[in-house]
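User: Reviewer 2 asked us to show a designed sequence for the structure in our supplementary figure. I'm pasting the structure tokens here. Could you produce the per-position amino acids so we can include them in the response letter?
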């Protein structure tokens, strides 16, 4: 299974809805946590950024960014949907020049008011506008939805035919380009509509970053799908960075686990991309001279490292011993402190002595277990620990919990877990007790 997190830019074709694109990406990446950062009309094409995994936490930091479009302005006809998919409701025979179009464009720069199309997904009283329009129940709904939007750039690229013009628009979130085309026509004095629409940029994401669903499927077959994913910190590169180094080990642990530490950075109350020794941790904020990570996006293993679970060694069912890897089963611990189910390189501390270990947290699916247990195999140790206090210190997550087809297959995997744990724990400060 492909496990990755970040932003995928889908090159959406005309006819595909934004929700269809999300469904396709969810299937390609085998990931449930998928969401787009703003819809693109089904008839439109272009850049559709889609967040995968924990990158869905970035929605609020991506959704308000500027968009860039290339659209075709068609003068001489109007449609009820304001684009080429609707029914014609007005026509004109006058031929309009490029100079006439260019002359009215400056009127639309800056902040302007815009009335959304009647055939849009905006809601009034919980009912979509397009449904109200089809049922003839609009009344004052459109006036209620009138909004202020911002046009930063608007230029005529070229004339492509009689009464047909390509325009480029850079605008704020929530701008309807088809409504802009209708309003430009009104400023000229002629009916008009949007012939087609291509979104060329959404925030920092461009056509060059984008892939069609077919291309993503091909990359998956070649094992190259990860190269299409934009890392989470690059996706929010518009947010200023804060590099942290030279702080104590205690303050590192506090920061990683969500506590605030003193920070002299003067950018208070603003989101910051936080890096510790060059490693991306997530989005933080300085408030009252203290820094706290508000959106954790760093390596989840960092939040495991050094975590302790205290309890007592309980009687066990000897399944581990039968597989060749006897375990000490922990009981009496605080279940609120349990890490996620899985297998971890760990350290077992008993009577003040620390020993390298492998700890499994889960329901033991291979043997049909129903309750979550904490089972620790202490490397190179023989002895009876029943009834003794034990502290398990988690160092690194090795894998998730898996159901194996046979005890032999499970035993082989445990041997691999032990090998990897030895590599992780060799010269580890957690074993030395520093």
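Assistant: Here is a per-position design you can include in the supplement:
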């Amino acid at each position: 299974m492909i496990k990755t997190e970040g932003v995928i830019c889908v090159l959406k074709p005309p006819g595909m809805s934004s929700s269809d694109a999300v469904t396709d990406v969810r299937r390609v990446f085998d990931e449930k946590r998928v969401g787009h950062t703003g819809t693109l009309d089904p008839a439109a094409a272009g850049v559709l950024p889609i967040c995968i995994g924990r990158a869905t936490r970035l929605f609020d930091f991506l959704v308000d960014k500027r968009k860039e479009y290339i659209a075709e302005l068609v003068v001489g006809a109007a449609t009820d949907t304001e684009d080429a998919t609707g029914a014609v409701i007005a026509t004109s025979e006058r031929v309009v020049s490029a100079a006439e179009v260019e002359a009215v464009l400056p009127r639309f720069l800056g902040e302007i008011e815009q009335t959304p199309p009647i055939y849009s997904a905006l809601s009034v009283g919980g009912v979509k506008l397009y449904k109200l329009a089809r049922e003839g129940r609009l009344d004052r709904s459109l006036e209620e939805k009138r909004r202020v939007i911002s046009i930063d750039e608007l230029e005529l690229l070229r004339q492509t035919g009689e009464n047909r013009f390509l325009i480029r628009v850079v605008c704020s979130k929530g701008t309807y380009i088809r409504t802009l085309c209708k309003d430009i026509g009104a400023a000229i004095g002629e009916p008009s509509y949007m012939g087609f629409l291509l979104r060329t940029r959404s925030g920092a994401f461009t056509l060059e970053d984008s892939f069609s669903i077919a291309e993503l499927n091909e990359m998956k077959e070649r094992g190259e799908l990860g190269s299409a994913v934009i890392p989470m910190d690059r996706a929010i590169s518009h947010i200023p960075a804060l590099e942290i180094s030279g702080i104590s080990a205690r303050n590192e642990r506090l920061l990683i686990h969500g506590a605030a530490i003193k920070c002299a950075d003067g950018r208070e109350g603003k989101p910051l991309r936080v890096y510790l020794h060059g490693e991306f941790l997530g989005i933080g904020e300085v408030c009252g001279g203290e820094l706290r990570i508000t959106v954790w996006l760093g390596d989840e293993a960092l939040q495991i490292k050094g975590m302790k679970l205290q309890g007592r060694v309980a009687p066990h069912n000897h399944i581990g011993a039968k597989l060749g890897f006897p375990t000490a089963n922990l009981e009496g611990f605080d279940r609120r402190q349990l890490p996620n189910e899985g297998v971890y390189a760990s350290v077992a501390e008993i009577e003040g002595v620390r020993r390298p270990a492998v700890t499994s947290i889960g329901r033991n699916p291979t043997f049909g277990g129903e309750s979550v247990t904490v089972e620790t195999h202490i490397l190179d140790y023989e002895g009876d620990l029943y009834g003794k206090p034990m502290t398990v210190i988690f160092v690194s997550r090795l894998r998730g919990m898996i159901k194996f087809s046979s005890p032999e297959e499970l035993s082989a995997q445990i041997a691999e877990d032990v090998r990897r744990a030895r590599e992780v724990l060799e010269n580890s400060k957690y074993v030395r007790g520093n």
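For the response letter, you might also mention the following. Residues 241-298 form a domain with the Archaeosine Trna-guanine Transglycosylase; Chain: A, domain 4 fold (CATH 2.30.130.10). The longest strand covers residues 147-161.
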